[in-house]
Amino acid sequence: MKNPTVNLRDLVILVADPNAYARRITNGMLRGFGANKVLEVEQTLSLFQVLTSQKIDILLCDTRLPPHGGLMLTRTIRRNTNNENRTIPILLMSSDTGETTIKNARDAGANMVVAKPMSPSSLYDRLSWIAFNPRPFIDTATYFGPDRRFKIEGYPGGVGRRKGDKLVEVAEEVGPGLAQNDIDNLFSAARKGQPDV
Amino acid sequence: MSDDAKHEANIFYADNRFERMARRPGAVAREQALEHAQSKIEELKSDFIDWLDREMQELSTALAQLESQSTDMSSIERAYTSCAHLRDVGATMGFELVTFIANNLCEILDAMKAGAVYDKEAIDCHMDALLLAKTEPYRHLSPAQVPEMTSGLRRVGEIVSIVPADDNK
To answer: What is the strand order of the sheet A137-139 is part of?
Structure first.
């Protein structure tokens, strides 16, 4: 997929961040992308007041949101069966993007994590990824949230790839290496537990 | 409920207005959207220095309080929050060095939460570095452009972040 565009017009976006200046920046970026309905809250209580009074289309939440943090908040939103916003996309914003934090965010039910300080491209590409890569919801006794089994091969805009990454050159395709019959035989043998045909 | 039923996963696609609406045609191209967002950030830059001054003052006050209550968790948390504010927006506003120094100081404060000993010189040295990073000649430099400063601060951070072993364990 090449640079899909994200249309944020008329979507209700809730930005939850204890840092007032960071909220202004995020709000500014979103409006720059074309959003016209951006709400802001600075702590969990106000966030729940908004969530219970209106439908939100996406939540952008800082992991340090007082009093208990964005991870706990995400878990609470996902586990509350009476909450109509239970399945909204949740994008966590965190300055700590270590493996543990990412894993915890995933297990809490967040759709994605974006590293702070954010750049317009990092935010845009994550919004784009959420919009264009829908994941099913998984409801089990121990987890409710987007399917955790996914892999990002690179964001649509190219952000996320390392600077030093090089294109892999492969030879031009000259035709199938194996005839379809051979392929079918291989699969059939593998299914029967006879890999060496 | 049987064990099987308990462990069975219900898999479904939720109707997601964000996905539906965000894919509508008519959005501006990505590059244009990024340009617009960047110009919104530029607009905010006019009062960023004022905000930075206020936030550094707040951090300085919190760190001064920490000097007399170095093991008090709420004092550490107050200093950490203030420092995290600087870290989280610095680079977005073009002040990469501010983000680097604030991040280093956050790590020191994190270590203090875990039991590392308060070190006034290390804290003062980071505060001085932040004040320097705010000045005109330094504000647009990246950490890589001042390697002596960044490697020195990193080293200071590593030394003072050592958490003493708990003898009771």
So the answer is: A144-146, A137-139, B10-12
